[in-house]
Design goal:
By secondary structure, this protein is mainly beta. The chain has one helix at 10-19; strands at residues 23-29, 39-42, 55-61. It has a three-stranded mixed beta sheet, with helices on one face.
Length: 121
């Protein structure tokens, strides 16, 4: 099974994967919520059963993005006015990951054909 790598260092994560007969692919990325040098995402959930030798991709935090634009804190006396309220549909709204399409009914599953229908008359 895939071990839980969240919060581990790169070396420890690779060691845990190796102990399970798996390999690791490290991706470094900025992340505001995780300590620098720690795993904050892995592509297989812990305890997922995968074949031996499977490559597990995990992300190591580089810390906060130094180029990220942050809004300055409001100064004393500033009050939001109508129209200043951030929209829930703004560019900062996270996009959910793509979900696989649900399989739809197949032809004939619900008797969609003309078979068995007797004309009135």
């Amino acid at each position: 099974p895939v071990p839980d790598l969240f919060g581990l260092t790169e070396a420890t994560a690779l060691s845990r994967l190796e102990a399970e007969g798996l390999t690791g692919k490290v991706v470094e990325e900025y992340d505001d919520t995780s300590p620098k040098g720690r795993v904050f995402f892995q592509n297989y959930l812990k305890d997922t059963m995968v074949p031996l030798g499977t490559e597990v991709e995990f992300f190591i935090s580089l810390g906060p993005d130094p180029n990220a634009v942050t809004e300055p804190p409001p100064t004393e006396g500033d009050t939001p006015t109508e129209g200043d309220t951030p929209s829930s549909e703004g560019p900062d709204t996270p996009t959910p990951p793509d979900q696989p399409d649900e399989p739809g009914p197949t032809d004939g599953e619900f008797g969609g054909g003309e078979e068995g229908i007797e004309p009135n008359g």
